[in-house]
Specification:
Elements: E1 23-33, H1 35-42, H2 46-49, E2 61-69, E3 82-86, E4 99-103, E5 107-109, H3 116-119, H4 123-136, E6 143-147, H5 152-163, E7 167-172, H6 177-183, E8 187-190, H7 195-202, E9 207-212, E10 224-232, E11 245-248, H8 258-269, E12 277-281, H9 286-295, E13 301-305
Parallel strand pairs: 6-7, 6-9, 7-8, 9-10, 10-11, 12-13
Antiparallel strand pairs: 1-2, 1-4, 1-13, 2-3, 3-5
Helix pairs in contact: 4-5
Length: 306
């Protein structure tokens, strides 16, 4: 892959890989398509990608079957196990490929009873949601606002927050209200302008914390109470505003966080987290998957099935 529109995605041959000490090789059967893949493809992250020469293989979510285990692997993973993993892309090391080698701590069992297509929609988005909640540090009974609730990240934030005993308020278009109710949101406000004002109509002092998945950035700050907490994806941090604690959610910090990802697997198996697939396509249709994601409105993840 070189940078550009969806049309630059094409199939290439890459060198074979083998698992070394402490590593696991996965025969990938499914890779989810995420907004971060769009950013990697269109050149917005070219400065970071230049550390490796092109072509670039995108993809941060993989599910498949272990086909090789290196020496010194202690996690209990063995050949033939269905697994899932978050991948941090670098050069041709990305999830859009048929085989990949990862550190053992990045690879956990797939949720029981799930297909590879379903399992690959969990790791990166759910770990991002987990990190956001960890950064916010809210306690049971406190109030969390979520922007972009119908999306994969927002949906996982809502479900993880409810599992932790938080009260959740989120915004949604009318067409997504039933989805947010199913995810567990306690209060739903209409999507669009005046987000902070709408939140304050329900919580006049503001919310204890806010997870910004819709990139409202500064437009959402007024929804947070004095001394509250605000975290956002894509690196946004507010300034010195009413004692609010700002953090940026960078999921790469949870690369290899075996216990956290395995706990997310458990939460899928006990029904606290829902895996949502929009559509599965062949590798030759990767550009179509990117087009669908960029067009907006997909609910669940587009998946490339190998």
């Amino acid at each position: 892959m070189v940078h550009g529109g969806p049309e630059v995605l094409h199939i290439i041959d890459v060198p074979p890989v083998s698992a070394g000490p402490g590593q696991v090789r996965i025969r990938i059967h499914a890779a989810a398509v995420n907004p971060t893949d769009i950013v990697a493809r269109n050149g917005m992250r070219a400065e970071f990608q230049r550390q490796k020469p092109p072509p670039y293989v995108p993809g941060m979510d993989a599910a498949g079957v272990v086909d090789q285990v290196g020496a010194e692997v202690t996690t209990g993973i063995k050949v033939g196990d269905p697994v899932m993993a978050m991948v941090v892309p670098s050069g041709i090391h990305g999830a859009y490929r048929e085989q990949i080698v990862l550190d053992q701590n990045a690879v956990v069992p797939a949720p029981a009873g799930c297909t590879h297509v379903e399992a690959c929609t969990l790791p990166m988005n759910a770990l991002t949601a987990r990190m956001s909640l960890d950064l916010l540090g809210l306690q049971s009974g406190q109030v969390l606002a979520v922007t972009g609730g119908p999306g994969a990240y927002g949906g996982y934030v809502i479900q993880l927050a409810k599992a932790a005993g938080l009260q959740v308020i989120a915004d949604a278009a009318d067409s997504d209200r039933d989805l947010l109710v199913a995810l567990g949101a306690d209060v739903i406000v209409s999507r669009g302008e005046r987000f902070a004002e709408k939140i304050r109509e329900h919580f006049p002092l503001g919310v204890d914390g806010l997870a910004d998945g819709a990139l409202l950035n500064g437009l959402a700050i007024d929804a947070v109470k004095d001394g509250g907490h605000f975290t956002a994806i894509r690196g946004f941090k507010g300034g010195d505003v009413r004692g609010i604690h700002f953090t940026a959610t960078w999921v790469t910090g949870y690369d290899g966080a075996y216990a956290k990802l395995d706990r997310l697997r458990e939460q899928v198996e006990c029904g606290q987290l829902t895996l949502r697939v929009a559509q599965a396509v062949a590798p030759e249709e990767a550009s179509y998957a990117h087009q669908q994601l960029e067009a907006g409105g997909t609910r669940g993840r587009m998946v490339i099935k190998f």
